[in-house]
Fold these 4 entries.
Entry 1:
Amino acid sequence: MPVENIQIIIIFSFIVLIALAGFLAKRFEASKTDSLMEWSLAGKRFGAFIIWFLLGGDIYTAYTLLAVPGLAYNSGAFAFFAVSYCIIEYPLLFLTIPRLWNVSKKHNFITVGDYSTKVFDSKFLGALVAGIGIFAELPYIGLQIFGMRYVLSICGLAPDIAIAVSLAAVIAFTVFSGIRAAAITSFFKDFFIWAMVITLVIFIPIHYFNGFGNMFEWLNKTYPAKSTVPSADFLSFATLALGSAVALFLYPHAINGAYTSKNADSIRKNAIFMPLYNIMLIFVTLLGFAALYIVPGLKNPNLAIPLMLYKTFGPYLSALFGGIIILGSMVPASIMAIASANLFTKNIYQNLIDPGISDKSQELMSKVSVAFIIALALLLSVIINPILIIKLQLIGGIIILQLFPVVFMPLFTNRISKIPASIALAGGLFTILYLLYVTHLNIIYDKIYIGLIGVAVEIILVFLTAFFFKPSNNISMDDYLDEF
């Protein structure tokens, strides 16, 4: 049998496996009723163990496995900002998302747009939050598609057919099983990815360097500038890590995953144990350093891991690892599509077009929207240059961070009412868009992450305006607390 055929069989075996798991997932924690709450949030009945895999599935994606070592390959130790922000984000998760879950449970919120609509009594603000969320998610899904494309191209396969089939599978099992599909497939995805990363981080340094010590010694001698973060970059490193950490749980898919929890305490437990994933993140960063030796001189650093795998293991095992990376693309794409679809249905269509839409029609519209959103992300990945879509994802992170005053700040004070929140959000968005313009879409301005500059402007505007308006009383501060 030709090598290409065996590779195809290996790749498609993983796609079939994850598709079957996704379809069978409808039986997991099955509900006797059909509703948008059940389809997209599993009725908010998942425990801490399931949430751990679900959040891991949508935070640590296939593109993480390519982009982080690619950044290490290209920029050296600066890549560890990803590890830093994943450490910072979990205390923020502990402080904020349990409170958001409590209020969502008490008021039957499905999306973060529902929360913004209620707390500010503003359908327009809810729709704006939804629009920003969808804008940020589309290039994120597109990056998962690029991850598939990089892996498949290195395996010598025409990527378009495999990508189309895998995304069709994602659409099908997501529409059929909803968030339960993402939860169950996350188990498979994480098992295989952990196994792959541990295997690689043990084998690669021993095979090529005879140990980690020799690898670091080689790196220090050959690429001394990549061994440390230059002092001139400390401020960029710190602000990028902090801003990225704050932004992560403003993304709709992260909030959607947390909303499936059966109680706020399950989220707190995950804030304690989720940092275990950072061990894997450290490992994949180290693989980027090893790739400098194994496949030097690459113009596209995102190809470092796929090319290293192919050179080290040949076509069959590289196809096996490629199939695992594709799993890491399919699972987060499902969660991101569900979160985006719900935002469109609940906070754009219902808020602005048809307030009386039935729950059954909402569920149907979200299912249709899943297919549309994934297809749109696929189209963007085809017609847009990879560098541009990466840039769009980075810009999306900056823009989603500007939701800070309308999502996180009201969790702790009712002094922020609709007008101060609107002024702050407008000021933050204007600031970042202006800075992106003057920096030619660079995310760093004067060594500071632009997203944090926007948030600083928002906080100042809130303090300058909040006390001129009555506090918001649409949600009681007691609603943010746990029920005992």
Entry 2:
Amino acid sequence: MTLDELAAQLKEAMSANAGADLQKNIRATLTAGLSKLDVVTRQEFEIQREMLDILRKQIDELTAQVETLEKAKR
């Protein structure tokens, strides 16, 4: 499902309903649509970002060690 398809479903839900049902139907449509998209939660994103930061630091440290060893070898 694309965002355009999701938007079309939301538009349809808004035109077919009024009042309290509208909020319920929009929530259901969004939930169903987002579950079909390849998205992650904010928490999952933050965890991945933290892991990437750790790996970046490790790569920098290993790069510095390799450079030091190469200089000592010459």
Entry 3:
Amino acid sequence: MLGKAALMPLAIVNKVLLARCLGPGLFGAYVIFLRICDLAGIFSLLGTKTLTVKLIGIAAGEKDWGLLKGTLSSIFKIVLASSVGTVLLIWLIRQPLCLKIFKSPDLFRMLIFCAGVIPLQNYLALTIETYKGLQDIKTASFLPVLQQLIFFILLSLLILGSAATIQNVLLALTAGLFFAPLAGLLIFAKRVKGWPSKRVGTNDILADSLPMLVTSGVVLLMTSTDVYVLGIFSNAVQVGIYGVASSLASVTFLSGNVINQVIPAMIAHFNAKKDLHNLKYVTRYATTISAMVSVPVFLFLFLFGRNILAVLFGPQYTNGAAALSFLILGQMVNTLTGSCDYFLQMTGLHVVFMKISIFSGLLNLALNIILVQHFGKEGVAASTAFSLVVQNSLSVLVVHRKTGIWTFASLEIMFQVLKLLKRRLFF
């Protein structure tokens, strides 16, 4: 909780600084650049991000340190090779991608930084997931905070020195992505020193990870389709305004992000032990706690979104208030339905979730293309929120059908928590 409480304000402050110093147009190109890196990063991870939590959680639960070390060694080698290949592919298609599809010369100048950003963000993601699998939540939460903190310090120095060009901003971003995983890997190296290492074949890892790659890719594509479609059918200014609204809407899912630091490894652990009682309990309890935290935030943003956009980012971004309302509605449903996506992936139902994700992704793409041409960024926001609701609803139903467990928030558990809080506060 403390990690996310530190991370979210830092991330928002960095977005505020960038939005104000770059302006909507250049900030919009920066948002598209980040989404390209995110999508390229997911595909170059080859599904190993989610698989890392699962395999490390199981190996740590069985105290098989040799298997744990061998698994990580193989995963990191796979990701290094795929990251290099992905960077080369982007470099080859950068001209038509930037100048013909997104029509942004600014984006063309930014894409050279993919060579550093994509591999580094992949290693940061794998390092974080490793600590999640070990249930070392403190370190897993510390690393993204460190990355954002380094970025904030360097960005502040650039702004104070009147040197906040887009090239210097991207250098600052790359520096944060370099030092954060480096710190995590150094800490981990001390822990595993002296551990034996079992050989784990890459084919074994890829057999499990590739279905997760499709799922992860479709999920990220679904969450990024809005920016891509808006960038293609509109312009960078509208993307910049929409990007600010999207960043603010993500605050609604803060508690869900906190829960997802812990719950995947626990789901994998209890499922491996066939402990359905604890599996059900921790899943619904976590979702209920998350919902109780999110509802007040949701209401505040929904009622005062326009004012918040004006105060934080500037009056030029208030045009994103309607898009913000749609997006936070989608995020609220995402919170109330709980970790249904992780549940499916951690319990051997990742292929089913892959199918759900593909359907939702295609629905999202179709709705985005149709609605953006009539309603602009508001249509994009509405279709994105609706598709997220569809995906989570289908996932909840499949989890219940396959396991008999509901993942969404429980009123009964909420009342139990409130009674406990009342006793703690007044007695």
Entry 4:
Amino acid sequence: MFKEEYPNELPMESLAKPAMGSLATSPVAMAPAGESPLAIRQRDRWFARARAAMPWGVSSNFRYWGDDETMIIARGKGAYIWDVDGKRYLDYRLGFGPVILGHAYEAVNRAVREALDDGNTFAFTNVYEIRAAERIRRLTGVDKVRFTNSGSESTMHALRIARAYTNRERFIKFEGAYHGSHDHVMWSTSDSPVETLGSRRSPIPVAATSGIPADLRKLVITLPFNDFDMLARTVRDRGHEIAAILVEPIMGNLGALMPAPGWLEFIRQLCDEHGIVMIMDEVKTGFRIAPGGAQQFFGVRADLVTYAKAIGNGFPVGAIAGKEEFMMTIEPGAVSHGGTYCGNVLAAVACDATLRVMEEEPVFETINARGTRLMAGIHQILDRYGVPHRLSGTPAMFGIFIGKKDSAAPLLDYRSASRYVDDALWAAIWQGLYARGILPDPDYEEPWFLCYALSEADVDQTLEAFEDAVKAAI
């Protein structure tokens, strides 16, 4: 299994070096990090235009940081982005994870430019999506693939397939997990206050937003992540009603919280015993933590798998994949799956080109080497300054939990993580990083993401800035 090659322990070592000529070895010379060459903020002018044209000036609520702080980005290259005032940031958000190779990666952009000369959307199967689907099958070992346009679409259709396959309607999801923005899955996410979730033995599904029909609550069963007893009891009592268990193998919206040993295997066993469809949501882990994603990393095969994000290096593409008997439930005239732009040329070519780079270059070796150094360095800095903390995840996608106090209790789920975290101290550290041109997400629940373009010098810069930020914060 891939996790045996890159175990979740510190420190880890890898002798892999980036291929010559790759972005991983090419510095980007621009304005020094943390400096802005303009006295008048172009950002304010651009945001005024954005606010006039779009609600709150954004196309996604996650991008709104307030009227005075919402960032406006001008461009990105490699591991960097630049805002409209010319300030450069080392980007550890990477579009919430899609940019696995680096911004504006030439091999992907070139393939897309060339293909677009032949058209983009045909209302027929095209040669590009066939090639991309074949590459997904080769890397992951799945039997069949259907393309979508996003992670939300992927989980939405996967649930429909599971319900059609089992002739059941309810499904299990885990507290703190985010599976997209459709109504069926927006329950008890990481935006839900812990005190609203009810008793651990009798959790209450909490809608993440207004506008979700209350009647959908009866279709979702929310449980704590990594709780073997609760899951076993629920499936024993209600298994005949449950179509699917929808699980992120690593909690992508909870600091890359890892599954307890045997957790995914336990879900696999319960699904087999009770005729439940196991859906592994790999929108964040797919083609990021291993060439074959979490299925390869953990050595557990799901019935259905959902992909997006790193599958196309930032282009809008997703996929549902899985075992033949489950995927063939999508029968024309019987079980619907479709979309005008599913498998369009732009998305399919970006997917194929991204995965081709993964097959031909040391993408994962390089990212794991950089991430291992970064995780180890952050751990050492926090230890040196006596800051309680936990690191979780893998070198390509990891989270930092800054604690209120030292505790030996494990972080197993959303409830325990929320009780542990010192939000104020993390916010102060983040402000220090941001001021120094280092850009992870301000929310500890969103992991740090790494790309192939990140260099050793970038890691050095990040660790130097992290130490300065911690020193200033405490």
